[in-house]
Each structure stands twice: as structure tokens, then as C-alpha cells.
Amino acid sequence: MLTIHKPMRGITILLLINTLFNIGLSQNLQTVNILFINDRTNEVAEETLNVALNYIRRNPRVGLMIDGLYSVKIGGDDASAILETLCVNYNASIRNNKPPHLVIDTTINGVASEAVKSFTAALALPTVSASYGQSGDIRQWRNLDGEQQKYLIQISPPADLIPEIVRSIVVAQNITNAGIMFDDTFVMDHKYKSLLQNIPTRHIIAAIDDTTSIKLHLTRFRDVDIVNFFVLGKLSIIKSVLDHANSNKLFGRKYAWHVITQDKGSLKCGCSNATILFVKPEPDAGSREKLSNLRTTYGLTSTPELKAAFYFDFYYRSLLAIRSMMNSGEWPTNVTYTTCDEYNEENPLPRRNVDLRRYLKDMTEPPSYAPFLIDTNGHSYEEFTMRLEKVTVLNSQSVSAENVGSWKASLNSPIVVKDAANMTHFSAVTVYRVVTVLQNPFMIQVDDEDGKGVKFKGYCIDLIEEIRKLIGFEYEIYIAPDNNFGNMDENGQWNGMVKELVEKRADIALGSLSVMAERENVVDFTVPYYDLVGITILMKKPQTPTSLFKFLTVLENDVWMCILGAYFFTSFLMWIFDRWSPYSYQNNRNKYKDDEEKREFNLKECLWFCMTSLTPQGGGEAPKNLSGRLVAATWWLFGFIIIASYTANLAAFLTVSRLDTPVESLDDLSKQYKIQYAPLNGSSAMTYFQRMADIETRFYEIWKDMSLNDSLSEVERAKLAVWDYPVSDKYTKMWQAMKEAKLPNTLEEAIERVQSSKSSSEGFAYLGDATDIRYQVMIDCHLQMVGDEFSRKPYAIAVQQGSPLKDQFNNAILLLLNKRKLEKLKETWWNLNPERIQCEKQDNQSDGISIHNIGGVFIVIFVGIGLACFTLAFEYWWYKYKKSSKVANTMNPKQMAMNKGGEFTYPVVPTFNTTSGMRSRSIIQGFRRSVGQSSPKQK
Prior knowledge:
glycoprotein; Glu/Gly-bd; 26 strands
């Protein structure tokens, strides 16, 4: 007899009760048959199925018993072979009288997945699938009717939802470029187009195959200026990517790193100094106890944990839904199954009243990781949570891991951030590569203040700074390798800034870049930021020769000498006539003693008379004798003609010297041969003239073919018969002249050739952009811009074709226009430019004569005044010293004595004969007047 001790009696009773309870449950177990179809590479799904079946087997309270389990592993791209394998197992289940109540499909994607979907849809088998794909991605289930959607159900696995966080981060951070790398734990075939669809973010999605591919992708991303990196994969793959990035110096404020994984654990990398946004899954707080129990009790140890937990819940919930349908009586009792051999495509098998989707949606079983959301195919998934951590790595050690936010798995779920300021560290500072061309005043390169580098200034720098303030970005400027704006050769190949944009080495082309039709075919232009600018002519400014004594150059030197000779000859002749004529004043004084006009024409008076006769003041009192008056009249007539001729010639001479403008337009330049002219080699101006010449040549060929066409009638040929060729060949001749003049290769060379010209009518003229020429004229007073602008085009900023920067820059430029900021920039760099030189105003026809040409007249005045001062000094000296001594020498001592009253005794004046009596008296009277004494009679 068995004796049971009291302490053991309670345990035995409990075991007996449990056994009886299980026996009771086993009598109510629902028997379910399963057709399990798995991808050969999906080991986690297979391992987790065993855990789920073990869980069901060890927990009879679940009320399930798996009787028939048919497991099929498929793979490859041979759809026929896959379908044959499926049919073999399916037909076997029917033969064994264990047809599947449920098909569990854990194929990933591709041909294998589509083959399974085709198989289950055709045979109307209730199916739950964990294949990858959003709405419409699974082609075979794309057009399911209402009844089929009830039992053909797809639930997206976690790895199909996790990439959506990339979209959420891009939207939250306003990221404009992204480089996305993923390993084999993620499937991105269906994400290439949909992941960042309708988001203005330039991105590349690339698969990681090995170490070589990591290096290749990082290089590729950097070459196209992608600075925001996303890595989706296992922690080991992430570490390898970060190590390569560290060796390539891809960490810092210009770069942003986001690593996303399904794995548990911490982030590790050999980074010297990096801040990384680390995204990893985190189980719900209410599910952690169950998850721990599954891991320790039932061996749910497959990794990644998120994936294993999903498959466990996926299996378990699907089987519970079948059980619930059977217990409620909604599972059909007479389910018909058609073998593959009996299947007729023309008569598809109907399946009614199997609403498996509703039972899955109403499931209340607590999850082991996160709850499920059951909706339509492509919108059913597990709502797990991803934790966002800010990880700082210094010298290969993670020094901190700060929780900054979370993200709930969804197709369009935003990031929940604890502190928005923390997220600013996880977006790269947007740094655009700007290619430019040096050109004053738009882009000027100067040495940095510390002398360690160079920086840029100019109109375009101020413009990009104003745009940067509105949009928010940073930029790096570099000069185009060939310093060209961009032209296309005969083979369609580009150079200059346009080439840098086409080959994705630059994001922005900034400079005085003209909008041209061929450029718009390969790049996108913003709205113009500068007025229409055309081509014009730069020439040396005509230098009008100036001279202080230019009034003397009106007459030739020989004429001046003849005038001077005539002056002296006439003065001498007048003196001779006045001396020897008996009717002159000095020889006939008694006759004119009562005449008020008494002038003796000695040689000095004759010189003065002839000189003053040439002036408006007049010569004064004329000679009394007729012969002298004839000489004076002749001199007056001579003076009148000379002065009139001089005045007329002076005005004409000064006017003609200011009208020396041989070229005033392009037509004038094309009609002359003394001045050579050419644009820069490879410039848009060169392209313009070359193409205009080609067009003229083509027109000529067309006209010639029309004129020489033998098929024309006489009337039609007569209509084409003209004396002159109807199309001008101006540009053809100009292009030929330009090639003969040799096109300069640089602007500096062109300016030097213009400056070295002999004059404005002989030398070299440069044809180029009006802004270039206007600036050169502004800083060099010896140059001038000639003619009107032609072939006018606006300046705009160029970006890569399809770049979202176009719209952003358009809005910014239009806003600057409304605020009149662009006008202020133009005022700053043109009118207020510190390089601007204030040139002396050039004489023109409307201005008066400049001091440079008439200043000699003032010199004549000063010279005359100087001579007058010298003469005055001489006269004073002559009178004071010379005259006194002569008078004293003509008197004896007795005559020089003074009487007692102090009266002066005049010397005895010698008398002359009667013929010279009048002369003697005149001399005596003159002498008395000179010494200031009255005559003896008067006394």
C-alpha cells in the first residue's frame, strides 16, 4: 500500500487536477492543418515556427492541435519549379485527407513570393503572408475582389516598415540630399521609388554587398555632394560602414549620420570623433514580461529579436483566428479543395464566407512585442516602437547615449522628439558646392585677412548671401577648372561651369551666366537676377590733344612769322613816311598848333600804333600826312582780315578736334579696316558671331539652290532674279576679320590690346559682354564703350537639372526684387564701387573750350604784366640816374650856381638856324616841361 506524506499530498492533488483539466481541454482542441511555405533564406521564420508550435503544444489551454503540417522551402527565379513543388505538397495533403486550413507564407519577395500568391489565389486557400511590399507591390494580389480580400491577407514584416523612418527623418529635418545604404537584412527593391516620393530630396539607395561596395558607395555619395547618410543593417555592418567613413574623414558638422537596425545592443565603431543618431527597436513595456518568458522558457532566441517576436505573433495570432472561426461556427464545414491537376483557370474556385481578416483584426491576445494593426493588404503591420538615441563616440568609445525621441512604426508616422534642439545635431549643415568664374565686379578673389587662404567678394557673393539668409544653407565656392562659363562643342560636350553642373560636381553655378537655349537643355536656370545684358564694343578713348598755346597753332609758324615781319615793316615804313613828309605833325607844327590831336610818330609810336590797331581798342590818333594815313589804312585792312581769319579758324579748329569719333556702332566697325576687332576665344560673344556667320552662309546656300533650281518655271525663276543678294553678309565678313585679328584668350589680353592701340581710329577693339566692358570703362579713363548693346540676354543662377534648388532660389530672388535689394546691390557695386575712378570730363561739342586749350592767353597776360613791371623799373632807373647826369654835363659851374634867393639859372641854350628854328623851340619847350620849370617870360 502506497503511503503519501502530508507535504506531498497537496502537490499530488494539484498535478491530478491539472491532468484532468488538460484532458478536458484536449477534448475541445480544434485540429488545424497548415501548409507552411518559407523562403530558403528566411531561417528566422522557420526557427520561430518551431517555437510557436512548441508553445501551442505545451499550452493546451490555447485549444489548438496541429495535425497536418506540410513545410515547403522554395527559392530561386524558376516560377514553374516553385509551383510544381507547391502542388506536390498540396496534393499530398489532400490525398492524406489533411488539406490545409491555412497557408502561412513567409516568403520575402520576388518570383518566389509572387508564385505563392498566384498559387493561393488560384486555389482559394486562406492565406496569411508576411511578404514585403506596400499597397499594390504584390502583383498577384493586386486586383483581389471583396471575398478574396477576406482570406488572402498580407501583414508587412518589421524590416519592411523600418525604412519608412528615413522618410520621417528627412521630412522632420528638411534634408535635401540623402545617401541610403542597406544590407541583406532589409529589402528595398520596392522602396527605390516610393521611399522618398514627392519629397524634394536628392537621394541614392544602394545595397551593401561587401567591404568594397562600402568604399564605392561612400566615394560615389561624396562625388555628388551627398552629406546625409543613412545606414540600415546589422550592427556589424554598421560598424564597418562607420569605420570606413572615419578613415575618409566624413564626420563633422558638414555630415550627418543616421544608423538604423533591427538588432539589440549598443553602437560600436572605430570613430575618432562622431555624433550619430542611432535608431533601434524597443519592445512595448507591457510585452516585455511575455517576451522574456518566450525567450527563457520556449527558446525564442533567434535574432534579431524584433523579427523573431513578429513571426511568433504572426503565427500564433493567425492560428488563433482559425480557432476562433471554428469555435464560433463560421468556418465552413464542407470546405472543398481542388488539386492542382483539377484546377481549371476558366472556372475559378469560389470561396465564400471565410472572413479571416475580421477575426485577425478583432484579436485580443496580448502581443509578445507590439500590437498588430490589421487593415488592407499593404497597410497591415506590427506597430512597434523605434528608439532614437544620440550617440557620441570619442576615440572609438561610446561616451554617451542620450534618448532624444521615438518613432512608432507606420507608413506615415512622424518622429516624436523630446527636445527639438537636439535634432539639429543630426542633420548636416547644408553645404552646396558653388562653381563660379572670376569676373569683376560679380566675383572677385582676394586674399584672406589672415593670409592663409583666399576668399571671394562681389555682386554675386552679396546675392548668394541674401538668398542664404532666406533659405538657410552654407556653401563652398570653387573656380571652374577652365574659368569658362560653359559652351558646347560640335560633339555636344560642355566645358566651364555648365560641365560642372552636368557632371554633378557642383550644385550651383553662380556668376554672370547668360541664359541660353542650349544651356537650358542640360541645366535649370532660376528667374533672372540681372537686367538684359548684351554685347558691345570696347575701344580706346580718343585723346584730344591739348596745349596751353593751342590758339597759336591755328596758324602755321610761317604765317606767324610773316605777320610779325609785316608788323615791323609797316611800323618802320610809317616812321619813315612821318619823318620825311612835309605834312606830318613833326615837320609842320605851326599848322597843327591849335589841333588837339598832336602825336609825333617816332619809331616807338609807330610800333605802338600798329600793335594797338590789331585790337578792338584801336590804334589811337592817326598820322596827319596822307602817305602815313594810307599806310595806316592798309595796316587796318590787313589786321581786319588776319583777325577775322584767325577767329574763324580758331573756332573751327577747336570744334573739329572734338569730333574725332570714327566708330559709333557695330556697323561702323564692320565697314572700316584700320581697327581690328574680336571677342574672347570660347566666349558667348564668339559663339554669337560664329553662328550668325553660319546662318548667313546657310541662307546663301538656300538662296543659291533656289535660284539655280532647274525645275522652276521661268516665272518662278524671274521672281528670284534680283540684282543684289537679298541677305547681308556682314557677319560673315566680320567673322573672317575676327579670325584674322586672332581672338584673345583672356580678358586681360583683350584689354591690353585695346590699351596699346595707337588711337581710337587705329588699333584694336574688343567685343564682349557689356558688364565686362562697363567695368573696364569704370576703372580706366582711357577706355570707352561704343555703340548700343545687341544680342541681349539676362543673367541667372544655374542649378542641376531637376534640382529642388530652382524653386527655392526663384522664391528668394523674387522676394529680393520686391524688397529692391537687387537694385541696392547694383548701386553698391557700380556707382559706389571703391574701384571706380572719377575721370576728367572729356571735351565735347556742347561744352566750352577747356583751360588746357586756352590757358596760354592767361600766360600772355602774365608775361605782358611782367614785362610792364620790368619796363617800369627800367624807366624809373633811366629817369633818375641817366637823365640827371646828362643835364648836369651840359652846364658850366657858373650856370649851375644858385642865386641868393635859391632861384635856378637856366643854361644858355644854343640856337639853330632859321630852317630848324621850330625844332629848336620845340626841344626847349620839351626840356622845360621835363624839368617842371616855366619860361623866363612866364616867370
